[in-house]
Amino acid sequence: MEKTGMAIQVIKEKLYQSGFKLTPQREIIVKVLIEKEHLSAEEIYMAVRAKHSGIGLATVYRTVELLTDLKLINKITFQDGIARYDLNHNEHHHQPHYLLCLNCGKIDEVEQDMLIDIEKEIEKNHQFKIKDHRLTFHGICQDCLKKTDSNQ
After folding, report:
1. Less packed terminus of the chain by CB within 10 Å, N or C?
2. What b/e string do you get for 66-95 counting C-beta neighbours within 10 Å, with b at 16 or more?
3. Strand order in the sheet with 107-110
4. In what order do the strands lie in the sheet with 83-87?
């Protein structure tokens, strides 16, 4: 089964286990999230409208909130205050770390969890059970650095 089909099947099963269905509208929204990550609800809506004009913005908002509540997608908010969404590839691990370019706004993910030792130290020293964490590195991406170097 192809990657998109597998992701949709996993989401369909998890929705069903939680008492929901993968409606045609939800499936279109999920396919948009599979194609491109880190989209705002408005960006998802624009992509969905290009494929199916009958889906409204309210449907997109309800769907991303449902999928977020079920931990099927991640909701990430950066300093611009806009929530962005991407598929949760592994619900049992922490969310990925992010690299946010301050020039162009590009967002990349860092998959490896570099904070495991720090978490253990915090849990030990503060008697605090950590369930998740989010880490965003702010800087300049490689493409913007190349543009800056070529302009000098």
Report:
1. C
2. bbeebebbbbbeeeeeebbbbbbeeeeebb
3. 107-110, 97-101, 136-139
4. 39-40, 83-87, 73-77
**Which pTM value belongs to this model?**
0.70
The closest of 74, 121, 80 to 94, measured between CA atoms, is: 74
Nearest to 26 by CA among 38, 105, 14: 14
Q: Which long-range contacts (CB under 8 A, 24 or more apart) does 73-80 make?
A: 73/33, 76/38, 76/107, 76/134, 78/107, 78/136, 79/138, 80/105
In three-state secondary structure terms, 137 is: strand
> What is the residue-level pLDDT of the chain in tens, covering all 152 positions?
466 778 899 899 999 999 999 999 999 999 999 998 889 999 999 999 988 888 999 999 999 999 999 989 988 887 778 899 988 876 555 667 888 888 888 888 887 777 888 888 999 999 998 877 778 888 999 999 998 877 66
Question: All domains of the chain, ordered by start, with CATH?
Answer: 1-90 (1.10.10.10), 93-152 (3.30.1490.190)
The residue type at 129: K
